[in-house]
Write a structure and sequence with these properties.
Layout (H helix, E strand, L loop, with lengths): L4 E3 L6 H4 L3 E2 L14 E3 L20 H60 L3
Antiparallel strand pairs: 1-2, 1-3
Length: 122
């Protein structure tokens, strides 16, 4: 289980300006000597944690974001599962089309280069 972290909420303090987080063992800010309060453990979040019985180290908004992201990943995985079989069926057709394209370019390529070079201003 992850432990909570603490942060200083004194706006003039350097620890608050840099969003520095401290271990649970700290009771007072080493910079300004004010009381430390529990903050969200997410890297870029410095939100004050609500006082609850749970030892949840993340704020409610970060938990909601994580849930949304988890649902999105599950949906993307479901979509990929439905797309993969159709891709496997379409692969031989795409390979044939690429081979045909290579044949056309190898046969008609020099003619196309001459035509394009006429259109490009020097």
């Amino acid at each position: 289980m992850m432990k909570k972290q603490k942060g200083c909420f004194n706006r003039e303090c350097d620890a608050n300006k840099t969003k520095t987080k401290f271990n649970m063992s700290y009771k007072y800010c080493p910079f300004c000597k004010n009381d430390l309060q529990y903050v969200c453990r997410k890297r870029r979040c410095y939100a004050l944690l609500p006082i609850t019985d749970k030892d949840e180290p993340f704020c409610p908004s970060c938990i909601a974001k994580d849930e949304k992201l988890k649902e999105k990943r599950i949906q993307l995985a479901k979509n990929a599962i439905t797309v993969i079989p159709t891709t496997i069926v379409a692969m031989p057709k795409a390979a044939e089309a690429i081979k045909e394209g290579i044949k056309v370019v190898s046969n008609e390529g020099p003619k196309l280069v001459k035509e394009i070079s006429k259109l490009v201003p020097k």
